[in-house]
């Protein structure tokens, strides 16, 4: 019931500081322009894809990069706080509590409840705040679509599904085979 007492705080007007008062209840709390968004805990297939991608990215990353998994807040301003499923940052941009610098990569693994949010809404927020690369992974129909930020908008730089692989150059070279991300 703590969540119910927190929700009436408003449709808008939330700040990054307000997130500190929310319960650690397994839900994902995010802010966009001061609007609180709440998502349910992910399914096992979602977690499996996140884990496999983490291992893949961590093995390929140069030493000056760090790879993190959700939950970790990326807070580019006082009214925006997102938790990408995976995020890659420059080691120099890591702070003690959260990340505020533009990400070099944000990865979202789609869920039925967040598909449109990840594909449209989060993509526009990431682009607006200078996230250099954005990947969308679908664990149900194993696939990946990768985008790089060019002149303020995302351009597709790679796409594959199933057992086919794609090699992506940014933020560092890595080859992804979607089917290998889930045991299905």
UniProtKB/TrEMBL annotation:
Gene3D superfamilies: tt1808, chain A. Transmembrane segments: none annotated. Keywords: Endonuclease, Hydrolase, Nuclease. InterPro entries: Nuclease_put_TT1808 (IPR012296), Restrct_endonuc-II-like (IPR011335), Uma2 (IPR008538). CDD domains: DUF820-like. Residues 17-173 form the Putative restriction endonuclease domain. One of its GO terms (molecular function) is endonuclease activity. This is Uma2 family endonuclease. It comes from Jiangella aurantiaca.
């Amino acid at each position: 019931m703590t969540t119910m007492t927190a929700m009436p705080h408003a449709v808008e007007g939330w700040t990054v500081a307000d997130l500190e008062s929310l319960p650690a209840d397994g839900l994902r709390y995010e802010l966009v322009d001061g609007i609180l968004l709440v998502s349910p805990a992910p399914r096992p297939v979602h977690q499996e894809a996140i884990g496999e991608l983490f291992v893949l990215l961590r093995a390929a990353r140069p030493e000056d990069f760090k790879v993190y998994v959700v939950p970790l807040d990326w807070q580019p301003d006082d009214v925006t706080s997102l938790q990408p499923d995976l995020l890659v940052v420059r080691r120099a941009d890591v702070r003690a509590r959260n990340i505020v610098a533009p990400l070099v990569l944000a990865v979202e693994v789609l869920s039925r409840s967040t598909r449109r949010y990840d594909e449209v809404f989060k993509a526009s927020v990431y682009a607006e705040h200078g996230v250099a690369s954005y990947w969308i992974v679908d664990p149900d129909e194993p696939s990946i679509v990768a985008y790089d930020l060019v002149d303020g908008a995302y351009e597709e730089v790679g796409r594959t599904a199933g057992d086919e692989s794609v090699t992506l150059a940014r933020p560092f070279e890595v080859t992804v085979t979607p089917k290998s991300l889930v045991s299905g």
